[in-house]
Amino acid sequence: MATSSAARYHFSFGPWNISSGADPFGPPVRKEVAFAAKIRCYKKLGFDYVQFHDDDVVPADLDFAATQRGVARVQRLLDSEGLKAEFVAPRLWEHPKTIDGAYTSNSASDRRYALERSKRAVDIARMLGTPNIVLWLAREGTYVREAKDPIASIGRIVDAVDTLLSHDSTCRILGEMKPNEPMDQSYLPTPGHFMGLSYRTSDPSRVGVLIESAHSILAGLDPSDDMAYALWHSKLWGVHLNDQNGEKYDQDKAFGAVSLRRAFNQVFVLEKYGYARLSDGIIGLDVKAMRTTRGDDRLKHLANSQKMFLSLLSVVRRVNSSRVESCRRARDYEGLELYILETLMGR
Questions:
Q1: Which H helix or E strand runs over 13?
Q2: Which of 21, 22, 238, 249 fits as disulfide partner to 210, beta carbons 3.0 to 4.6 Å?
Q3: Residue 282: which residues within 8 A CB-CB, separation 6 or more?
Q4: 49-71 pLDDT, tens per residue?
Q5: Is 261 a member of any domain?
Q6: Which domain holds residue 21?
Q7: HSE of 168, CA atoms in CB hemisphere, 13 A
Q8: At what angle do helices 333-344 and 300-318 cross, to 10 degrees?
Q9: Does residue 119 belong to any structural domain of this protein?
Q10: How would you class 159 by CB atoms within 10 Å of its CB: exposed for 0-12, middle for 13-18, buried for 19 or more?
């Protein structure tokens, strides 16, 4: 078994994780929090890094000079709070020009818009001092399979990644895959699909993945298996830890809220097999407060998720590796399972 990294973990979340509680079936139930006030919550919670969409930083339609000024203002805010940007993600799923997909749209002009906006996100990331560009390919799929050419679509995604790699020789692309929602079916539904694509890009060494727990569960997979597979390839460069109650809509529940055993296995894989060496030890969260949450409690889901990770990390570090290996050699999987369960129960 690999030895544990001694690196200290850091934590991140995105400003959207402090929300007003609106959903597709109802309006906001909590007051909106100003962006600067959200940023001031990070250190109080023990978080060091901020996840950004491009338009979290500056509006999407600013020219380059105005973008520079806007990014500088955000950088000063981060500096004043002792925070760093973890990544920037182009928000390519909300604009009217991306209703048919961004990189895979049937419209050439809409594909050009998506590429230009993505290159601008790379510029914003460079100004904020992070090489990491996260691509959630939210609309790169179809509602009707015959509506797009699937071979051409995969090629267009590769071309888009290559465009970003050539735009900035220092950036890294992290694919965040999800099998469905908002599209009915995605072209690259799992991290394994995106990693396969990465080896056809112009620089595979700069293309990896960010794995979100709920997205793996939605695909019927165990997140720890996806994480282990990416770690074997040395391509797990980010995580979004959360939880999911079955293969339903994307719930973004607090980490460990549904399955402690599943959460334990994710922490076990991250800790035991060197995630911290590939990611600066950044543990990202992507969790929503329940709609029923009162305004005064709007940060509890973040604090609870961080506490669960640290608690499970303590459990993982108490696991007797020799005992695990002994059970493996003896094929005593019943004994191993009981040992893990009792360890989780503090026995």
A1: strand 10-13
A2: 238
A3: 9, 10, 11, 12, 48, 49, 86, 238
A4: 999 999 999 999 899 999 999 99
A5: yes
A6: 10-344
A7: 20
A8: 130
A9: yes
A10: middle
pLDDT of residue 193: 98
Report yes or no: 188 and 157 within 8 Å, Cβ to Cβ.
Answer: yes
Question: What are the Cα distances from residue 263, in Å, to 152, 172, 266, 268, 323?
Answer: 38, 27, 5, 9, 21
Domain harbouring 115, CATH code? 3.20.20.150
Go through the chain and tell me how many residues it has.
347
For residue range 268-297, list pLDDT tens digits in order: 999 999 999 999 999 999 999 999 999 999
Determine contact, residues 218/244, Cβ cutoff 8 Å.
yes
- Give a yes or no: residue 4 inside a domain: no
Residue 60 counted as domain residue: yes
Does the structure show a pLDDT above 80 at 29? yes
**How many folded domains does the chain comprise?**
1
Q: Kindly state the average pLDDT of the residues 235-257.
A: 97
User: Cα–Cα distance between 4 and 22 in angstroms, integer?
Assistant: 41
- Tens digit of pLDDT for each residue in 222-239? 999 999 999 999 999 999
What residues are labeled active site?
53, 56
Helix residue spans in 82-149 (DSSP H): 108-128
